[in-house]
Automatic annotation (TrEMBL):
Gene3D superfamilies: NAD(P)-binding Rossmann-like Domain (3.40.50.720). Pfam families: adh_short_C2. This is NAD(P)-dependent dehydrogenase (Short-subunit alcohol dehydrogenase family). It comes from Promicromonospora iranensis. It comes from the Bacteria.
Length: 292
């Protein structure tokens, strides 16, 4: 088990499932965990679907950890289309943005969010765009329209697609990578949680659809512990050169669905970057000739 002694972490969604397993794992490895949820056992209790609840969460965290925090793991999420937009995307981005300065003061800061293997499927472009434009009201309205038109199942994965894209563009900018804050995601497949049993796995026919939509060669549902272990590693000092990654812990679904496609062609550079690279190559060769 990765060592976390002396580090303080904020973990959301600790009432059950991945969040609960992660919090217990981190505590067993020597960390102090500020558990955030809505149940009696939570250290911080607030409704993350509202701006007031998000603000209250930050205030309570700062009160409980006046010496600062070393990392955050934002696990809280919902498959319910009515709350998914507010909880899965906007609360996650709001908490990260607000706690960024707190993390920047830590010697080895880490932030991890929970995505989903469902983000491999196509989402609703308008909903994704509204999320990335930071327009919560419009995003909620679009989600409501999708539900009314019988397309509510696309809402959840759209929030996770938006989260992945936000992470990829944000993790490498000056406020995050430039400040030494590592920001990554773990994307689980269908795992054995109470929410999955009551939701996507409850109907045998729906479970068969999932086996085609998100094939998991290692089995469906998968275990929760490996997902928590992946998050714990990304929070640890050992993950010191990893940022901007969406790490799929999905029983092989991503490999089945995408195959070798991400690696079939190389990166295509823009004109400005190509000019800079060529210029520096020429300068390097001229310097080498002069040094002879």
């Amino acid at each position: 088990m990765t060592e976390h002694t002396g580090r303080t972490y904020v973990v959301t969604g600790t009432d059950s499932g991945i969040g609960a397993v992660l919090a217990t794992r981190l505590e067993a490895s020597g960390a102090r965990v500020i558990r955030c949820g809505i149940g009696e056992a939570a250290d911080v209790r607030a409704d993350l679907t509202t701006p007031e609840g998000r603000g209250s969460t930050v205030e309570q965290v700062r009160s409980l950890a006046p010496a600062g925090i070393d990392g955050v793991a934002l696990v809280a999420g919902s498959g319910n289309a009515d709350v998914a937009v507010r909880l899965n995307y906007f609360s996650t981005v709001a908490l990260l943005s607000t706690l960024r300065d707190d993390l920047a003061r830590a010697p080895r800061p880490r932030a991890v969010v929970v995505s989903s293997s469902s983000s491999l499927s196509a989402g609703d472009a308008d909903l994704v765009d509204a999320c990335l434009a930071d327009d919560e009201r419009r995003a909620v309205a679009i989600a409501g329209s999708l539900v009314a038109r019988g397309r509510g199942t696309v809402v959840y994965r759209s929030t996770k697609i938006a989260l992945n894209r936000w992470l990829r563009r944000t993790s490498v900018d000056d406020d995050w990578a430039g400040a030494g804050i590592l920001l990554n995601a773990v994307a689980p497949g269908i795992v054995e949680t109470e929410a999955a049993r009551r939701g996507v796995l409850a109907d045998p026919a729906n479970a068969r659809v999932l086996q085609d939509a998100l094939p998991q060669p290692l089995g469906m549902p998968g275990p929760v512990e490996p997902v928590a272990a992946a998050i714990a590693w990304l929070l640890s000092p050992d993950a010191g050169f990893t940022t901007g990654q969406v790490h799929f812990v999905d029983g092989g679904a991503e490999a089945v669905l995408r195959g070798e496609a991400p690696f079939a062609t190389g990166v295509r550079y823009g004109p400005l970057r190509m000019v800079r690279m060529i210029a520096w190559t020429v300068i390097g060769r001229l310097r080498a000739l002069r040094a002879r």
